[in-house]
Specification:
Layout lengths: L3 H17 L2 H16 L21 E9 L12 E2 L8 H13 L6 E6 L6 H7 L4 H11 L13 E6 L5 E9 L2 E8 L2 E8 L2 E11 L4 H7 L4 H11 L14 E11 L5 E13 L2 E8 L8 E3 L19 E4 L2 E4 L6 E4 L2 E4 L5 E3 L4 E8 L5 E6 L4 E8 L1 E2 L8 E2 L4 E4 L11 E7 L2 E3 L14 H32 L8
Antiparallel strand pairs: 1-8, 2-10, 3-4, 4-5, 5-6, 6-7, 8-9, 9-10, 10-11, 11-12, 13-16, 14-15, 16-24, 17-23, 18-19, 18-22, 19-20, 20-24, 21-23, 24-25
The structure holds zinc ion (ZN).
Length: 485
């Protein structure tokens, strides 16, 4: 590890950077914590002119789309706002604003910025800042028409203006990313209003090579934690992140970021496209809201939603000959739990992978005979037993797609006749495949697929635009950083 002096120097340097450019805070914060905790101080910021950060192995691009705030855009599930107004870079602006007010001849208005402390109500906070108790009460009354004041959060920032004689005349509070609540009044008569704040959505593109984990690789490319978590979430149906990530795998992400008009606030938006290249195999996902659905989902290029069910019957033209549950064992003769389903079918009938995944085992396994086990994600595995032979190329470590032939019905192992014995494991133990309640996947077809194709095309175009925008900038500055295709 590097020596302590170097690290201290970097910390100071880092604080200076925050002062100069608050936007950096969002990226630098993630880098800083990560770097400090691992002692990888060489990963801390080393300056540069502006975002994006660029390394030789990966690029980070962004561009402003002309799109203003979309009123119809679905609200993100989790709060994604990154408040950066509490950085030191904020202070000079507040000062400037106050000077401006004074110059406008409104008297010596006193501006105060307060934050709700733990255990403090809004009333206490206003009175503590110098408001008259009845003024505070009236102001809160007006505020409550626009905001549930009981749900005020610790740390909530409120800007207050007092007249020269100490009367509260204005209260400003950010309601959410797009709305500001303003309460104004004189002589105890307050009027509240919700003001819509303009913002801009920019798109950002990042890609990189995974050396250790996707999380760390993405963080190194300046992706905020909330976006990385989202990235992992959307791939969680396809990928087992504990096991499937290998050194040299790649990621690509294209997502939205909302920036307030004053540039002070940032809110991370939706991932529009993401791609993982795992052991050379690409898995791409596009965000799309089918016209008959209320919410967006992620889809593979072929129109298959990423949230897909395991096939309950991984074989066609078979008869369910034995259910899940207690039964008298046909060979051993005593009662035992049958932890799967038996499908009776002619020898040689193809057996399909119940879902996308990685083959964990494809070899003889005692009484199961020729046996295949597939790991679908961190939660589900399926097993297939008594097969006469394996599907083409099916062996340990191979990635398979839902519906791919992994073997053929047979009578190997301890059996009385040819059948497929099929089990589903959930978190390590067998469950009844027929009782499974996992997100049902949809596959876009016909008209629905054509709509999706348009979305894919638009997204791809936007990605190209975002990349070329940066390329243009680089040409001007003469930066020779490489850009991934
Ligand atoms: Zn069985």
């Amino acid at each position: 590890m590097t020596d302590r002096h170097y690290k201290e120097f970097n910390i100071k340097d880092y604080i200076l950077h925050i002062y100069r450019d608050y936007r950096r805070y969002v990226y630098a914060g993630a880098f800083f914590i990560f770097g400090l905790s691992l002692g990888l101080s060489n990963l801390l910021f080393t300056g540069g002119d502006d975002v994006p950060e660029t390394t030789s192995e990966a690029v980070f691009e962004e561009m402003a789309t002309a799109a203003p705030t979309e009123p119809g855009a679905p609200a993100p599930k989790a709060p994604r706002e990154t408040t950066i107004s509490n950085t030191p870079g904020d202070a000079p602006i507040t000062l400037a604003e106050s000077l401006e007010l004074i110059e406008e001849g409104e008297g010596e208005v006193v501006l105060k910025e307060i934050r709700i402390k733990r255990g403090q109500g809004l009333m206490d906070a206003l009175v503590d800042s110098g408001a008259d108790r009845s003024d505070a009460f009236n102001a809160i009354e007006s505020l409550s028409d626009h905001f549930n004041v009981r749900r005020i959060q610790v740390g909530q920032k409120i800007d207050l203006s007092y007249t020269p004689d100490g009367t509260l005349e204005r209260l400003e509070m950010q309601k959410d990313f797009d709305h500001l609540i303003v309460v104004e009044g004189d002589a105890g008569n307050y009027e509240g209003a919700t003001v819509e704040l303009p913002s801009q959505i920019i798109t950002r593109h990042a890609s990189g090579i995974i050396d250790d984990s996707l999380f760390l690789a993405a963080q190194r490319q300046g992706l905020p934690q909330i976006v990385i978590v989202d990235l992992i979430r959307i791939f969680s149906y396809d990928v087992d992140f504990q096991r499937e990530i290998r050194k040299g795998d790649q990621f690509e992400i294209f997502y939205e970021r909302k920036i307030s008009e004053d540039g002070r606030r940032v809110q991370e938006g939706n991932i529009l496209f993401a791609k993982l290249t795992l052991s050379g195999k690409e898995i791409g996902l596009y965000r799309h809201t089918p016209s008959d659905k209320d919410f967006a989902d992620y889809f593979h290029e072929d129109g298959q939603s990423s949230k897909r069910a395991l096939m309950k019957t991984p074989i066609e033209g078979a008869r369910l000959s034995s259910y899940y549950g207690n039964r008298k064992h046909p060979v051993l003769g005593y009662n035992r739990m049958h932890k799967g389903l038996d499908f009776s079918a002619p020898t040689g009938t193809p057996i399909m992978a119940a879902g996308d995944g990685v083959v964990e085992r494809a070899s003889w396994y005692g009484s199961f005979g020729n046996y295949v086990r597939i790991r679908h994600n961190g939660t589900y595995k399926t097993i297939y037993a008594h097969m006469s032979k394996y599907g083409r190329g099916i062996k340990k470590g191979v990635r398979v797609q839902q519906g791919q032939i992994i073997g053929y019905v047979g009578a190997t192992g301890r059996v009385t006749g040819r059948h497929l014995h099929y089990e589903v494991y959930m978190n390590g133990s067998q469950v009844n495949p027929l009782a499974l309640k996992i997100p049902s996947g949809i596959k876009l077809k016909d008209q629905a697929y054509q709509e999706f194709e348009v979305v894919m095309e638009n997204t791809n175009q936007l990605i190209d635009q975002t990349k070329s925008h940066i390329l243009l900038t680089r040409d001007i500055t003469g930066d020779e950083a490489s850009v991934s295709p």
